[in-house]
Amino acid sequence: MYRIITLLFLSLITVSCSAQSLCDKLAQLKQECYGFKPEGLTDEQREAKSAALDRFWNLAMSDTLQAAPCLKEMILAEKNDSYFCFDASSLLLKMDNRHQYTDVALAGVQKSNIDDLQLEPYLQMCFYLGHMGKDVGSLAEKLISKPQASVYLTIHVVTLSAIDASLFLYNTMSTEKAEGYLIKAVTQGNATARHNGAVALNIIATTKGDSLLNSLIASKQLADSTITFILNDRKTFTQNASCKGNISREEILGDLQRSRTDSRINYFGFAGNDETICAACTQLRKEDIDAIRTARMKATPGLSDEGLSEYFALTKILMTVRSKSAVK
């Protein structure tokens, strides 16, 4: 019995030492590989750094069960290395099949300086965390506060403005929460955030948001370019013409309720379908506004221009129905 206990004890010590050894190796590689700002590197230096980071990632991926807790502690302890916080959070999410470390990854991204990052992976990670139920409002604010920001989606070969990119993030949260973050950006943000936030708040289309924007427009507390942008959007997203056709309100409500959460369903029922959009603007009523909002929240299951087009089509329906219903 004594021998069995001794062997078990030695076994536990061996496992502990092995885990500690991996943490030590990762910590050492971190010191060797990170501590740089990507925008300050030449192409040759970027290539060398990429190879060095591959060593760090490969070591961590060689034993994800032991590496994940090490990465967690490294991310939470880091105070200075912005790029490490983001890159290590990406790595942690890659190995986190049970979604145990999403809060840690969120904390890592929040520590990151957006000026140190490429915006496509930044948007992708923020969008993923938002879909996992995490509050990405502060991360969206970073995006709309960055001057001249744009995001190129490589797979879809499309460039998103900061406003369009942020709508994907705000669409992962409740309307009330998105409204709150955008009002904060408009009232407390830098000049870029005020413009982008005001335009996005107008598109969100809420009573409180519209009231604030109308007040700021009337008192000219927004830049002329921002006011022009908002007024043009209100015109663009309001359907004026009456429609011909036999599409009933019940049929349109059925389309709104159709699931977009299943990736096997490639359904963009409103984008590009002028007849259906016009019928929806004509047939739907004030009591249907919640159904329109729910459908719009399901319009962006992924980052794509198709999803954004569907989002904007439903925005047109939403803003038209709110306008004709005299929602104040």
Account of the protein in words:
Residues 1-19 form the signal peptide. Keywords: Signal. This protein has 328 residues and is mainly alpha-helical. The protein folds into three domains: 23-31 and 46-117, no CATH class; 118-236, no CATH class; 249-324, no CATH class. Helices cover 67% and strands 2% of the residues. The chain is built from 16 helices and two strands. Strands 1-2 form a two-stranded antiparallel ribbon. A hairpin with a 4-residue loop joins strand 1 (150-153) and strand 2. It starts with a helix and ends with a helix. Residues 1-19 and 261-265 have low confidence and may be disordered.
In short:
With 328 residues, this protein is mostly helical. The protein is built from 16 helices and 2 strands. Keywords: Signal.
